[in-house]
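Batch manifest, entry 17 of 40.
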Amino acid sequence: MKRDQALLNSKEDFICWLGHASFLVQLGQKRFLFDPVFGNVPFYKRKFSAPYSVEELGRVDYVFISHVHYDHFDKASIKALLSKRPEFIVPLGMERYLKKIDKNVKVHSLDWYDSFEISSTLKLSFVPSKHWGRRGALDTNKALWGGCVVESEKQSIYFAGDTAYDQHFKEIGKRYNIDHALLPIGAYDPVEVMKHNHTNPQEAYEAFKDLNAKQMLPMHYGTFKLTDEPINEPAEWLDMLVEEHGEDIYKILVGEVKFL
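Output type: structure tokens
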């Protein structure tokens, strides 16, 4: 883990990994949180504390949530962010979950390949993933799921959310020019089950190549032990990929501020 709190005040574009699938991103003079989860979630405890408190994160303009699973959509974390008055961008059908937390929250719901125009030079597009969603016994796939591409005049960032490997990566790569791809590498064992839900490190790298992106930043590992593989295994596998493809992969540290 690394703490660069002073750097969070920079006016430059950056990506900061907060652990698991949570990121603070500054792009085009706006600040985004992706899948913010700051504490434990039902059934799973964090292996380490969040690198920054909610207060230390500073201004948050937009929160993007990829889907309704507890390790990506955490009510306690959302409540902690409400004082910052961000706008939420979510998959179609997910707005009702947010309205139960705060009926006055400002939320934009998107279908796959819909775009939200933030300004004349900045937009967020909602893109497909191979996954699913459920929070209770009776709401399976009642809301959509997916990732996003945020594009400014200078940079573009793809955030995959949760996904298995499939053809959608090639389609996203055809539609968008992606600079930085935030791709999940953990929660893949047992393979027979998880290959339909998540990518392992090799599959994530193949997805990166399908996207034709310039740089891969791995995520979704080391924070929660969600599945059967040893918690350190994705990182060890990743190290082998970095040794082989080091110019393509940036192994960002939790809490690190990476300027773009």
